[in-house]
Amino acid sequence: MVAWDFQTVSQGIFAQDDPNTDPSKFDFTANRFGLLLPTWQDLKGHVKALQDSAEPNVSYKVLFLARHGQGFHNLCIEKYGEAEWDQHWAKLTTDGLTLWGPDPELTELGVHQAKSVHHAWKEQLASGAPMPEGTLYCSPFTRSIETLLNTWDGIYEGIRGGPDGTDKVVLIKELLRETIGVHTCDKRSTRSEIAKRYPFFQIEDGFEEDDIYYQDDYRETIAELDDRIQRFLEFLFEQDAILETVPTYVSVTAHSGVLHSFCHVLKHVDFPVKTGGMIPVIVKATRN
Question: What residues does each domain of the chain span?
Answer without folding.
Answer: 8-60+74-219+239-248+268-278
